[in-house]
Structures are given as C-alpha cells and as structure tokens.
C-alpha cells in the first residue's frame, strides 16, 4: 500500500480526489454505530434523496445497498463534484431523518469513505458491484444456502434482475455486467453468478478468497492497476503543490454549479419569453421568479443565497419559500410556467 505521507499527506482528514468521470466506492456509517434507517420509510426516503442528488449533480449510481447502520454506493461523477454532491446528500437526508423522528444532531459518523476506482476497467466495476450486492449475505441478513440473495429488498441487485428500462433513471447496470461479459438481457446469468458467490461465502476457503479480493477495497484509498495509481499520485501531487486546492476545499465552481445554473437560467428565460433585464423589473416574489428558483434548485447544486441574488429575489428565504410552494400546490398559473420550463428540456416532471 502506498504511503500518502510521502506526498506530505496525513490520514486524519483524507484529501478528496475529484475529476470528471471519476468513480468511487462510497461508504458512510451512522454516528457511534447507530442505525441510519429505522424502518422502510427511511430507506425509501434515502433513495428518494439519492435520486434528487443524482439529478442535481449528474451522478450515475452503478450499485447500492442500504444496511442497518451504513450504506454503500458505486458512484460515478461525470463532473468533478463528489464533495458538493455528498454534502447535499447526507445533509439533506439528515435533516429529513431528524424532522421525521423528532431528533437532532449528527446522523453520520465523521467523514464518508470514498475509494477511487479505476473506471476504465470493467473488471473493477464487477469487483465493487459484487462486494456491494453481497453485503446482506456477508452480514447474515439472508440464510446462506437457504435463501436467495434477491430476498433482500434494499439493494440495486433486484433491479439487475429486471428487464432493461426498469429501475431508477439514475441507476446504470451495464458497466458492472460488462465486467462479467454480460448484458442487461443476461439477467439469469447475473443471478446465477451472484448466487454462486453467496454459496462461496458459506465455505471457509471461498470466503477467505473473496475477502482477499476485497482487501484493497476495504482498507485502501484506490482500486486499480499501476497506470491508474500513477495517475492518482500525479493528481495528489498537484493538490499538495497547491495547483488544485479546490479538489480538497470544494471551493471551485463545478460544471453542475454556477456555470450550469447560468446556462439553465438562460434557457428558462427564453422558455418564459423573458429577457435577463426583466429580472430587475419583476417583483421579488413574481411567479416567474418562483418557478425559475425551483428549477435552478431542482437541477443544480447552487446555494439558496446564490439563486436569490441571481434572480434578484432579495433575501434567500424567498428561494426556500418558492421551492416549497412548487412542491406543495403551485396553482394553475405556476403549473403552466413549470410546463414551459420542462418543455424546454424535452422531459416530463
């Protein structure tokens, strides 16, 4: 294992390596080992929140599993925005969890773990996907040799067994299957493969072999070959040299951040037949500003304050109110404006 101290790094607060197209195995645990899902409604809410995060950031999820006190994701970031997206995902879910259960404080334990994966090799997708999907069997949540893995509901594995086109729009199955030389039509082949891995877990020799295969994934900071290692050390060197401090601080603009928000606003204004100059003339609470504020927050990860300033809405709480109004009962006029925006991007609500 490479010693990060050679680059002047410590493991007290690992640096986040971010770049377009990066793939990560992300894992986060509950604070002090506590459960982060009390019931199925919590699990449903987490998946809803994950879907919103993917819409905001452009993420793809290749595999996931929700356990009692932790979760795993095989996550791809087409844009370099892991830190921004994870901050929103965990912060938003924590708020929703605390509100529902009438508690307060931290839900997650420290920082999430993010192991960088060599996304150029399908073999590594298979390794991580198998590890994630086997978690319920490893944890004893299904009876090895007695129950099928599909019995566990809160995993992307069930979607792998359904016809192509079914499942969340943010879930991709092709890369994991490609690592096994399968396609989305080979559902039975993937199930047979996974069931054989489950049976291996029931054998001491088989379990040891699988655990050895997963060692780098569980204890390391990257998973890939030598050329991938060289690429990562170059990126780490640039961070230490100060050339890419934003990769650690998250302070740089993301492609799905302010730049994308401005482009989205330009399209929205055109759809509503408005000019940029009209924003200064419209009232702070104008319906057009309400629907644009909702749209920008729905489609990007920019802050409330930034949206409020961009749309000239005054205090950022007007943005919060606008989003809440659109989610509850927007009314006929707002619904019509909303459809104008959705038509401009060629998609349904």
Largest β-sheet summary: 5 strands, mixed
Mean pLDDT: 85
- Reported CATH architecture of the largest domain: 2-Layer Sandwich
Strand content: 5-15%
Instruction: Name the CATH superfamily classification of the largest domain.
Output: Transposase IS200-like
- Terminal residue distance: 47 Å
Query: Strand tally, please?
Result: 5
Structure overview:
There is one protein chain. This protein has 349 residues and is of the alpha+beta class. The protein has two domains: 4-240, Alpha-Beta Plaits; 258-344, Chromosomal Replication Initiator Protein Dnaa, Chain: A. The chain has helices spanning 40-57, 82-101, 122-133, 135-138, 157-160, 174-178, 187-201, 204-213, 215-219, 226-240, 246-249, 258-271, 278-281, 287-299, 304-310, 317-327, 331-344; strands spanning 22-29, 60-66, 70-77, 113-117, 222-223. The chain has a five-stranded mixed β-sheet, sandwiched between helices. The longest helix has 20 residues, at 82-101. Residues 1-12 and 245-256 have low confidence and may be disordered.
What's the quick description here?
Helix content is 50%, strand content 9%.
Question: Layout of helices and strands, plus pairs?
Answer:
Elements lengths: L21 E8 L10 H18 L2 E7 L3 E8 L4 H20 L11 E5 L4 H12 L1 H4 L18 H4 L13 H5 L8 H15 L2 H10 L1 H5 L2 E2 L2 H15 L5 H4 L8 H14 L6 H4 L5 H13 L4 H7 L6 H11 L3 H14 L5
Parallel strand pairs: 4-5
Antiparallel strand pairs: 1-3, 1-4, 2-3
Helix pairs in contact: 1-2, 7-8, 12-14, 14-16, 14-17, 15-16
């Amino acid at each position: 294992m490479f010693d990060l101290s050679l680059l002047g790094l410590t493991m007290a607060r690992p640096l986040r390596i971010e770049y377009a197209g990066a793939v990560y195995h992300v894992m986060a645990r509950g604070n002090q080992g506590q459960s982060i899902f009390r019931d199925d409604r919590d699990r449903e809410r987490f998946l809803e929140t994950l879907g919103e995060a993917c819409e905001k950031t452009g993420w793809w999820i290749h595999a996931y599993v929700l356990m009692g006190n932790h979760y795993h994701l095989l996550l791809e970031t087409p844009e370099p925005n892991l830190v921004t997206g994870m901050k929103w995902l965990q912060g938003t879910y924590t708020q929703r969890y605390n509100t529902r259960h009438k508690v307060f404080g931290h839900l997650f334990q420290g920082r999430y773990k993010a192991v960088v994966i060599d996304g150029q090799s399908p073999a590594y997708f298979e390794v991580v996907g198998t590890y994630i999907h086997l978690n319920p069997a490893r944890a004893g949540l299904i009876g090895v040799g007695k129950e099928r893995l599909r019995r566990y509901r809160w995993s992307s594995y069930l979607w792998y067994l359904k016809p192509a086109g079914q499942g969340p729009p943010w879930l991709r199955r092709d890369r994991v299957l490609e690592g096994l030389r399968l396609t989305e039509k080979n559902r039975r082949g993937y199930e047979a493969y996974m069931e054989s891995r489950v049976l291996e877990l029931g054998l001491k020799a088989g379990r040891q072999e699988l655990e050895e295969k997963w060692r780098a994934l569980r204890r390391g900071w990257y998973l890939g070959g030598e050329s991938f290692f060289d690429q990562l050390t170059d990126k780490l060197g640039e961070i230490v040299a100060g050339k890419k401090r934003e990769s650690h601080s998250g302070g740089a603009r993301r492609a799905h951040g302010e730049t994308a928000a401005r482009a989205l606003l330009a399209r929205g204004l055109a759809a509503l037949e408005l000019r940029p100059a009209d924003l200064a003339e419209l009232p702070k609470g104008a319906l057009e500003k309400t629907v644009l504020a909702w749209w920008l927050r729905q489609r990007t990860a920019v802050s409330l304050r930034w949206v409020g300033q961009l749309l000239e809405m005054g205090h950022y709480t007007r943005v919060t109110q606008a989003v809440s109004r659109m989610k509850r009962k927007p009314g006929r006029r707002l619904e019509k404006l909303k459809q104008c925006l959705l038509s401009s991007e060629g998609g349904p609500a």
